Amino acid sequence: MNFIRKNLANAFTLGNLFSGCIGAVHLFGGDYRTAALCIAISLILDFFDGFVARAMKANSELGVQLDSLADMVTFGFLPGLTMYKMLEPFGSDFFGMNAGFEIKYLGFFITLFSCLRLAIFNLDDEQKFHFKGLNTPSNTLLIFGIYLANQESGSFRFLTENPALLLLLTLLSSWLLVSPVKMLSLKFKSMKIRDNVSKIVLATGAILLLALFGITGIPLVIVFYIFTSLLYQNQI
C-alpha cells in the first residue's frame, strides 16, 4: 500500500508521457484528431499527477524530475512538431526567397525553448503560485490549437498560409516560454474572492470564448490568458 501511495502520482506522469508519445506518432502521420485526443489526455494526467502527489503527501524530487521529462515530450516536442507540420508545405521559401534549407525544421525552436523553460522551472523556487513566462501546456494549446482549428474549420488561415507569420509565431512562442513576465497560475493562495479576481476573470473569459468559438476558441483562450496575466501583474 505504501508503494502505491508513493508511486501513484508517478504513474499518472508516465501516463502523460505515454499519451504524448502516441500523440507525436499520430501527428507525424497526419492524424491530428488522435493527436488532439492524446494531448487532452496528457493535460488531464499532468494536472492529476500533482494533485495526487499533494493529496497523498508523496511529493518527491523524483516526481519533479519525472514530470519535466514527461512534459518535454508532450508539451515540448509535440508543439515543435506541430509547427514543423505547419511550415512543411512551404519547403525552403523564406520571406519569398530560397533559404537553401527546409524551413520546417525551425519549428523545433519551440521544442528547444520548451526544454530550456522546463530546466529553469525546476531550479526556480519563486514559481509556486505563479509562472514566470508561458508554461509549456499553455504554449502547446496555443500552437496546436491554431493547427487544429485550421484543419477543422479553416480558421487562422491568414496565419497558416503565411510562412513569415508562422516563423514570427515561432519566435514569439519561444520568447514567451523563457520570458520574465509573470503569468497566472490556477493555484490559490487563499479562498478570498478579492485575492482571486484575476483567476475568476480568466475562467469566465475562457468559458465564454470556448462557448462562442468552439475549437477556434482554444488558442484564443491562451491569448486571453496572456493578456489577463499582463493586466493583473501587480496582483500576481
Question: Overview of this structure, please?
Answer:
- The strands form 2 sheets. A two-stranded antiparallel ribbon has the order 1-2.
- The protein has 236 residues and is mainly alpha-helical.
- Helix content is 69%, strand content 4%.
- Strand 1 (93-94) and strand 2 (97-98) form a beta hairpin.
- The N and C termini lie far apart (39 Å).
- It has helices spanning 2-28, 32-55, 61-87, 109-123, 136-153, 157-160, 163-178, 197-213, 217-231; strands at 93-94, 97-98, 130-132, 182-184.
- The mean pLDDT is 89.
- Helix 2 (32-55) packs antiparallel against helix 3 and helix 8 runs antiparallel to helix 9.
- It has 2 domains: 1-183, Up-down Bundle (Four Helix Bundle (Hemerythrin (Met), subunit A)), CATH 1.20.120; 184-235, no CATH class.
- The chain is built from 9 helices and 4 strands.
Structural class: mainly alpha
> What name is given to the CATH topology of the largest domain?
Four Helix Bundle (Hemerythrin (Met), subunit A)
Give the total of domains: 2
Low-confidence spans: none
Radius of gyration: 18 Å
Q: Per the principal axes of the C-alpha atoms, what is the gross shape?
A: globular
Structure described in brief:
This is CDP-diacylglycerol---serine O-phosphatidyltransferase. Keywords: Membrane, Transferase, Transmembrane, Transmembrane helix. By secondary structure, the chain is mostly helical.
Topology:
Blueprint: H1 2-28, H2 32-55, H3 61-87, E1 93-94, E2 97-98, H4 109-123, E3 130-132, H5 136-153, H6 157-160, H7 163-178, E4 182-184, H8 197-213, H9 217-231
Antiparallel strand pairs: 1-2, 3-4
Helix pairs in contact: 1-2, 1-3, 2-3, 2-5, 3-4, 3-5, 4-7, 5-9, 8-9
